[in-house]
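User: Teach me something about this protein's shape.
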Amino acid sequence: MWAFASAPLDASLYGCTFRFMLGAATRSRIPVFAWLTALAVAGCAEKRSPTTNGPPIPLAFASFGASSAQSPFRPTIENDKPPPRSAPAGMLWIPGGEFSMGAADGEEHAVAGCGDPLGDAQPVHRVYVDGFWMDSTEVTNAEFARFVHATGYVTTAERTPTALEFPEAPRENLFAGSVVFTPPRAPVPLDTQFRWWSYVRGASWRHPFGPGSDLAGRERYPVVQVAYQDAQAFAKWAGKRLPTEAEFEFAARGGLAGARYAWGDELRPGGRWMANTFQGHFPNEDSAADGWAGIAPVAMFPPNGYGLSDVAGNVWEWCSDWYRPDAYGSAASAGVARNPPGPRESLDPSEPGVEKRVQRGGSFLCSSEYCTRYLVGSRGKGEPSSGSNHLGFRCVRSSP
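Assistant: First, the predicted structure itself:
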């Protein structure tokens, strides 16, 4: 229900603000919204026009990838076994195999206010994953509506917090809602995300921007305002599960070893926008140079090498792993990790005691002026009971 920014800013600032929002003396048990993990992770690249959609663009290995003697990346070794059966509806076969996981150019992509945005995605290390099926796009509003209609499920954002859950919060602060990106009317300092994020009464997957919004004409848009538990519930109903972080990165790389982006090493190959991100002056002026101001319908940009759409930009996506900034150090010391499920417990030094799950892919708020976690090896994080209007998910299914 509440949100937290994963940008390396003063954590105490957020703590004080949350105490103020709930009127509590302490922040214990206050859900910290994925405000972001994605927000910090919300700055990235830029946007492009739906008219440029088309088949996958041929991609080459990144110039600093497997071919570079100084690169920590080694070639991806894909499994050569064919899919075990025909593809489930809306899913694509990801062959799995051994690859180099992580990011190596954090310093190059650091931007003002963010420090090194990729420090928690290092060191690069070798990982093996089995083949699996993956949704070709993020789960859409239409798909989520079918789930809710069939089950009567009520999402976290639609549930009113109780005094039992938040005993120190004033009753007037206990209302259902979620976090919404609200761009300021003029340029603002980038010192706190609270300048462009608001907790909005009545915001939910049905009303992604608040009570005055709905899903009319947005059936093919990604469902947003979903907490981790909501995504898990959908996946179980659909006979699927959420991807591990390793599965997501293997799939997002699309067979490219060490590429900076999910489509290669150039941000705009041939001048073409490849993902839905933020152009213009962040956060107050989105020029929509890529054709979309804000969130876009799924599959409006070229798919990656495995045919997956929007594995970078558009909306953040939940993964099943607990988040720890030191997870890769432990993995690198153990040789080739096989189907790693992630750490056994969460740790976020900027939010001690608040558990976080990994999020991947960046969102439509990625901006070179703020942060760059649309880069394919980068990571995000979010408190599991939190949602926002730039956070969704997609599912996977294991091979029999």
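Now, about its shape. The helical segments are 11-22, 106-109, 141-151, 228-237, 245-253, 327-332. Residues 224 and 392 are 5 Å apart (CA to CA). If you'd like, I can walk through any region in more detail.
User: That's plenty for now, thanks!
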